[in-house]
Structure formats: C-alpha cells, structure tokens
Specification:
- There is one protein chain.
- The protein is of the alpha/beta class.
- 36% of the residues lie in helices and 12% in strands.
- It contains seven helices and 14 strands.
- It has helices at 2-38, 167-174, 220-228, 248-256, 289-319, 321-350, 352-358; strands at 51-54, 59-63, 80-84, 90-91, 107-109, 117-118, 131-133, 141-142, 155-157, 184-186, 207-209, 233-235, 241-242, 268-270.
- Strands 1-2-3-5-7-9-10-11-12 form a nine-stranded mixed beta sheet, with no helix packed on it.
- Helix 3 (220-228) links the parallel strand 11 (207-209) and strand 12 (233-235).
Length: 359
C-alpha cells in the first residue's frame, strides 16, 4: 500500500512536469504566430496593395489607383511591372529600388500615369531593364541624367509624352553614353521639329520612330548622320514637309537610300501647289536651289532696272521743270479761254430777251 502511494505520487509529479512543458510550448507557438502577423517584414511572395501579381510569369500589374508614388514593396521576383492610370506626377530618384536593393526587372510600363517630371537617376536599381514605356504622359521636365543607370535598355517609348517645353531637355537626356545598347526609340506625336539626337553613332539603334511630329525638313547634318548609320530604319510619316529647295539633302537621301521604311507616306504640306504630293515623287528640278536662286536674282535685277528707270525719269522732270511749268501754264490759259467761250454762249442761249431780239 505504501509502494502504490509512492508510485502514484511519482506518476503525479511526472504528469505535472509534462503539463507545464506542453503549456510552455503552446505559449511560444502562439507568440510566434502573433509576431508573424504583426511583423512589418515582407516576404518575397507579398503583392503590393491594389496590384495583381502573377508569380509564374513574374508580372505585377497595378491599374487605376489613387497612389501618387511608385509602390515601395515591389517583389524581388518581378520581371515585368505595369503601372497604368495612376497619379504619379514625378518619378523621384531611385523610385524603383526595393528596400535599397536592385531588381531583376526587364520590362517597365508607365503609360497613362500623368507623369510630368523625371528626376536624376529615377531608374536607379534597374540595371537589367530592357524595355521602358513612358508613352502618353505629360513630361514638362526631364533631367539630363534621367536615364542614367540603364546600361541594358533596348527599347524606349516616349510617344505622345513630351511637351514642347521639354524638347530641349529630352535631347540632353537622350544624348548620353548610358544608352549605348538602345535598339528602338519611339518619339511619335511630340511636335518635334527635328531629330533630338545630336549623334547616332553612340547608340545601337535599329529603329527610330518620328511619326506625327512637326518636322518640315532634315538638314545636312542629320542626313549625313543617317547615311553613316546604314542599319537604322527611320519612320517619318505624318510630318508637314516643306517641299522647297531646303529639302534638297533629305530628298536625295530619300531617293538613294532604303533607310526610310515609310517613304511612300511622306507628303508635302507646302507650298500650296505641291500640297499632298509624295516627297519621293518630286522632280529633281523642284529641289534645285540653284534655279530658285537664279530666279530670285532675276527678279531682283528686274526691280533694280525699274528703279533706275524711275530715277532717270524723275531727273528729266527735274531738269526740265521750267519748261514743264510754262507748258502747264499755257495749257491752263487755253483751257480758261475755252471755258469763257462756252460760258458766254450758255448765257446767250439761256436769256429769253436776247432770243426775242434775235426774232
């Protein structure tokens, strides 16, 4: 009986120890769960709010939100980020760096976001980016270092985005060695008056789209640059070309080169007589500046001859002013005598007393 009591006491003691240990483990697990739920640390699988994530394709799509900044919690596995219909007015420095680390993103689409300014190094942290789409925004300010940090960029789309006030800034931003691997550049619908690239040999361009701008002609420097970069294909339709002798260099490049992919769609807008005529259908004499210059010189010469004749005529009048004055006086006296005769006859015919006397 004493032995059983001791065994029971021993067993009860072990059960108490096991119960205490189990309770401690449950408390620790509960605390760990609370920490995970409340912790601000993001896992790699987290998706930014108001976005749709597809881990299999590596695509994060964020559309039609009220956010004014780029999401700061972009997953590290993102290869393509699409932001559309947001209210992002300014792309700040390092806007796409996730917690200060670089991303392996290759595609970035930022169209229709109302972007007005791009600050220096805005795309820092995207060294492997291949495609950047900034179309359909309203860029008023573009830093000269806006595209720094994009050594692998292959395609840049800026269609319908650049306001006239930012055209010069765009030229400064594009003329940088960091875009040396750029293959395709689209600048359609920006009211540009010239090619914003000072040099073409610093890029690896294969396609340059300048459709629907305000380009009236390409000067000798631009044409020479195009001749030297034979791999480039240029698209220039829907530009108001002024078809006079100032278009001569561009005209002969168009006739002798196959670099303009839409050459058949290039139409004259001026002068009125050539409006709507395809540029490549013009005649060589239409572009001959020498003939136009000779014609202008002939008109000037004719004007000088007429002016000289006028001066001689005035000199003759001046030297014969005395005789001319006497001649005018004689004519006036003769006219006066004649008028007096007419006046006298009129008085006789109108007086009835003179008429009765005559009867």
């Amino acid at each position: 009986m004493k032995l059983r009591r001791k065994m029971w006491i021993f067993h009860g003691a072990n059960s108490s120890v096991r119960l205490s240990s189990t309770w401690t483990q449950w408390c620790l697990r509960y605390a760990a769960v609370l920490c995970l739920l409340c912790s601000p640390v993001r896992t790699d699988d987290a998706c930014p709010s108001s976005c749709v994530c597809a881990r299999d394709s590596g695509t994060v799509t964020c559309r039609d939100g009220e956010d004014t900044e780029v999401p700061g919690d972009i997953p590290e596995w993102t290869s393509a980020l699409i932001l559309r219909g947001r209210n992002i007015s300014t792309l700040q420095r390092g806007a796409f760096m996730s917690n200060g680390t670089e991303l392996d993103m290759t595609t970035l689409s930022l169209s229709y976001n109302g972007i007005q300014a791009i600050e220096p190094y805005a795309f820092l942290g995207l060294p492997r980016l291949h495609l950047l789409d900034l179309s359909n925004n309203r860029l008023e300010s573009i830093s000269s270092r806006a595209f720094h940090g994009l050594p692998d960029l292959r395609s840049l789309y800026l269609n319908n985005s650049v306001l006239p006030s930012a055209a010069v800034q765009l030229s400064d931003a594009l003329n940088t060695q960091t875009l040396q691997n750029l293959h395709r550049l689209e600048l359609a619908g920006n009211r540009l008056r010239s090619i914003p690239l000072l040099r073409l040999d610093i890029y690896n361009l294969h396609a340059l789209v300048l459709v629907n701008n305000s380009i009236e002609s390409l000067d000798w420097e631009n044409v020479t640059n195009l001749y030297q970069q034979t791999r480039i294909r240029v698209y220039l339709a829907l530009n108001p070309f002024r078809c006079n002798c100032g278009l001569e260099a561009f005209y002969y490049w168009l006739k002798n080169s196959s670099q303009c992919a839409d050459a058949g769609r290039l139409l004259c807008s001026e002068p009125e007589a050539k409006r709507g005529v395809p540029v490549e259908m013009l005649r060589g004499e239409d572009m001959d500046c020498m003939n136009e210059n000779l014609e202008a010189v002939s008109y000037v010469f004719l004007g000088l001859v007429l002016a000289l004749i006028g001066v001689v005529f005035l000199m003759v009048l001046y030297l014969n002013r005395g005789g001319i004055k006497r001649w005018l006086t004689n004519i006036r006296e003769a006219c006066r005598d004649q008028m007096e005769v007419y006046h006298y006859r009129y008085e006789q015919d109108s007086d009835p007393r003179l008429a009765n006397v005559a009867v």
